[in-house]
Amino acid sequence: MSFKSFKYGTNRSSIRGFLAAVFRPFMSSPSDAPGVFTSGHSKNDVGQWQTLVLSNELSSQCQLERVVYCKCTSGKEHEFLLLHFRYPTQQHAVAILVLDRTPCTDSTENNDGSSRRMQSSYTVSPSVSPTPTYDSIFTTTSNNGSAIKSYLSRTYGPFKKLCYLDFLTARPSAIQVSVLLSALSKHSPSYHLYQYQCYWYAHTVCEALKRLFPDCHEITESGGRSCYLGVKIEKADSVEVVCEQYHTQWARIENAAEERRTRRAKEDEVRQLRMEERAQCQAEIDQATRKANEATRNANEATKQKEEAVKKANEEMRQKEEAVRRAEVAERMIEEAKRKAEEAERKAEEVRAEWQAEMDRMRAQLKRQAV
To answer: 94: how many CB neighbours lie within 10 A of its CB?
Structure first.
């Protein structure tokens, strides 16, 4: 697509889609949803995959956006599915998982699918007699397109895409897909060449998804589903039974989830009541503390006032004692002044007496001289 094709008035969703396609390789891919969005690659049977999905909330919330029905173009024309899951919070992130059914091998397959040659030999030449089945899901880093292409090339060789099943609004979650796959494995735990083979598995998964989640759109690219060399291969018709088993298992999971929600709600209610009680007790404690502090402040204020009153009384007493002392000093000074005045008066009398005597003596002498 060239930039010239974008003219004024182009639909905004188309622009957003174009920009998302341009910048998607540069966006970081989440790896915190085990079983769906991971770092590196792994291969698990559907039971293990369901455990992974159920153990993580983000994994269980990933939504199935598209199913691609694939068919090998060589050998026994093996059929498998590609599951496109979208991350719940980062809409640009899409993980492609490979869903497959093969006979179980005697050797333990590594978690990264390294025993591919042993597994591939069974996909090419499965046994006619019933054999334990290996229903598996392969996951790899969501934004590593080369990793998924390499795995598909190594495991299946050349293949073609027969049809696409796109879910529009009511998309199945990863946990719902895991319940459906678990129902299929429980319904047919054995690989049977003429009933429960890869053709049956891919067909039943798609048809069950269409029935359980009808808001979907199917696009057929090529014919040849459930055929070998153009001949229709016999397989069991298990869609209705599997859907019933799905409803039973899903109801059990929903009931368990409802019980957990009820238990959590009760625990939250008890926790809330305890918090309220603690808050009320704390409020009462705070109020009592405030009252005690107020009483302490009042007592301290009363003590302070009493101390001030005592101090003031002591000061008044000291002032009174000082006034008395000063009065006594003044009285002593007055007495001393009186004493000094009396002494001065006495001395003045003596001087007057001496002067008078001297005057009398001088008069008498003058009289004698005059005679």
So the answer is: 18
Q: What is the DSSP string of 347-367?
A: HHHHHHHHHHHHHHHHHHHHH
Of residues 177, 198, 251, 235, the one with CA closest to residue 75:
198
Confidence of residue 367 (pLDDT cuts 50, 70, 90): confident
Measured distance CA(170)–CA(240) in Å, rounded: 20
Q: Note the Cα 115 to chain centre separation in Å.
A: 40
Per-residue pLDDT at 120:
42
Instruction: Determine the Cα angle at 182 with ends 173 and 146, to 5°.
Output: 60
Integer Cα distance of 100 and 77 in angstroms: 13
22/26 Cα distance (integer angstroms):
8
pLDDT of res. 161: 95
C-alpha to C-alpha distance for 102 and 110, rounded to whole angstroms: 15
Is the CB of residue 111 less than 8 Å from the CB of residue 44?
yes
Q: Which two tokens stand for residue 165?
A: 């099943």
Residue 126 token pair: 């499965």
Q: 179 near 249, Cβ under 8 Å?
A: yes
Amino acid 135: pLDDT: 94
188 in Cβ contact with 238 (< 8 Å): yes
d(CA 22, CA 330): 113
Cα separation, 141 vs 37, in Å, equals 7
**Model-level pTM?**
0.65
Residue type for position 170: A
Token pair recorded at residue 19: 């920009």
* Amino acid (1-letter code) at residue 167: F
